[in-house]
């Protein structure tokens, strides 16, 4: 495309609405179709049957408590592993928590139920994580004996992880995918903190982390909104590790809205809406709900790209509640209040995002915008990704006020001059393979 035709295309594309062609990879589309509302319902019902999954409940009882629940999750993972041609393995990753004077009052065995689907490319060290939290609670966060069904919080997220493992275990991916049901979320994100610390200590190359928590209520308390067509994705603007010169660079370039987690959220929206019908992915530009937190946060704090996926309208009658009925109002987190078709769609968003990322090449390297001279055009350059085979690249463009990327321009080169000003637009570059799987987006740094 010459610079004149590119200029016209960008001008028309950015100033007016145009047709959008949705191209779905048949492999990913086939996996999405395998996600089953009936399977998700069965997983949740089994999780509820353990009575309570409180982090400090029994780890030795075979039928009740967190120990029985995590053992069952690993059992399911091992069933699916038989279809993976030896690529998937499952285990409980444990540590001992000491009393902390806050939400742990006795020494406690904390265990994350994990399955690792090993990538097929021995040179590709990328890791993708999908999580939900296994533990549950009632009104008193320290009550480890009362029935705490935890159907939606977070049986729904755990079920989504299990179902993704079931479907994806049969398909080879160049990169590694980790499926994990963490414990200790209600006791202050203890299981995810343990995992994030381990990942950083062992040098895992985590490209993206998807945290699923409270995924399946289609209605809200107080407002009485009923809607199963929207899914929220929360993302941090940038990491707490972005300090010093990194933070100064963010300010100088106006990149407060372009951290790694924010880019991942945009990727989830584009990919999820590409593969899942009748669902809008709503980007919420904060790390989590107001004054609340989730299991992605320890990963964000370690500098990884991590986001939270959660239902659009929470119902607090069925969250963190003792089981009871007051004046015909039923309180408690029961499966009866869940919408499993909604959970199916939300699970499919996770699957499509993970599959597209794990099949794609790695992100392009050394992405730069040239600033040698003052110009009203923009010259970008980059290098091929470290892993995977890039058939080409997408240069992404959006106005500074746009929350999402507005246009993609394809090229097989590793440079592109755009006839638009750096003053008015943000840019990024993705690698894309012959099957159309896009890497994450890389915002350019300054080059000369």
From TrEMBL:
CDD domains reported for this sequence: FN3
Alphabetized, the UniProt keywords read: Hydrolase, Metalloprotease, Protease, Secreted
User: Which SUPFAM superfamilies does this one have?
Assistant: Fibronectin type III, Zn-dependent exopeptidases
DNA damage found in the keyword field: no
**From the record, what ranges are coiled-coil?**
none
Superkingdom of the source? Bacteria
Q: Where is the Fibronectin type-III domain?
A: 363-448
The answer to whether UniProt assigns keyword Hydrolase to this entry is: yes
GO molecular-function annotation terms? metalloexopeptidase activity
UniProt-listed PANTHER family: METALLOPEPTIDASE M28 FAMILY MEMBER, PEPTIDASE M28 DOMAIN-CONTAINING PROTEIN
The name this protein carries in UniProt is M20/M25/M40 family metallo-hydrolase
Species: Flaviaesturariibacter flavus
The taxonomic lineage of its organism, from the top, reads: Bacteria, Pseudomonadati, Bacteroidota, Chitinophagia, Chitinophagales
């Amino acid at each position: 495309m010459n610079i004149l035709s590119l200029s016209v295309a960008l001008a028309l594309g950015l100033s007016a609405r145009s047709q959008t062609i949705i191209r779905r990879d048949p492999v990913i589309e086939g996996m999405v179709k395998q996600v089953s509302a009936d399977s998700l319902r069965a997983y949740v019902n089994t999780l509820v049957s353990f009575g309570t999954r409180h982090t400090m409940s029994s780890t030795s009882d075979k039928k009740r408590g967190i120990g029985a629940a995590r053992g069952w999750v690993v059992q399911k993972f091992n069933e699916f592993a038989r279809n993976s041609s030896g690529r998937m393995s499952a285990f409980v990753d444990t540590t001992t928590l000491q009393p902390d004077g806050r939400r742990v009052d006795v020494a406690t065995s904390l265990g994350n139920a994990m399955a690792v689907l090993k990538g097929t490319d021995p040179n590709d060290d990328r890791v993708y994580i999908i999580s939900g939290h296994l533990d549950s609670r009632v009104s008193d966060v320290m009550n480890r004996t009362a029935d705490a069904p935890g159907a939606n919080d977070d049986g729904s997220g755990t079920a989504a992880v299990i179902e993704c493992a079931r479907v994806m275990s049969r398909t080879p991916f160049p990169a590694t995918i980790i499926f994990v049901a963490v414990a200790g979320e209600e006791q202050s994100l203890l299981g995810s903190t343990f995992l994030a610390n381990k990942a950083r200590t062992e040098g895992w190359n985590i490209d993206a982390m998807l945290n699923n928590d409270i995924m399946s209520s289609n209605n809200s308390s107080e407002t009485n909104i009923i809607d199963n067509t929207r899914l929220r994705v929360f993302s941090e603007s940038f990491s707490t590790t972005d300090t010093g010169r990194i933070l100064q660079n963010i300010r100088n370039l106006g990149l407060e809205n372009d951290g790694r987690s924010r880019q991942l959220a945009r990727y989830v929206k584009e990919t999820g809406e590409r593969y899942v019908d009748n669902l809008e992915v709503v980007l919420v530009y904060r790390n989590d709900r107001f004054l609340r937190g989730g299991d992605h946060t320890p990963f964000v704090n370690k500098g990884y790209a991590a986001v939270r996926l959660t239902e659009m309208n929470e119902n607090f009658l069925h969250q963190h509640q003792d089981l009871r009925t007051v004046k015909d109002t039923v309180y408690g987190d029961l499966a009866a209040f869940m919408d499993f078709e909604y959970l199916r769609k939300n699970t499919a968003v996770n699957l499509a995002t993970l599959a597209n990322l794990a099949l794609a090449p790695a992100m392009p390297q050394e992405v730069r915008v040239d600033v040698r001279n003052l110009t009203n055009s923009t010259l970008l350059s980059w290098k091929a990704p470290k892993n995977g085979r890039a058939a080409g690249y997408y240069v992404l463009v959006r106005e500074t006020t746009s929350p999402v990327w507005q246009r993609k321009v394809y090229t097989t080169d590793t440079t592109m001059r755009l006839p638009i000003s750096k003053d008015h637009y943000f840019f990024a570059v993705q690698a894309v393979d012959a099957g159309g799987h896009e890497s994450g987006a890389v915002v350019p740094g300054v080059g000369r």
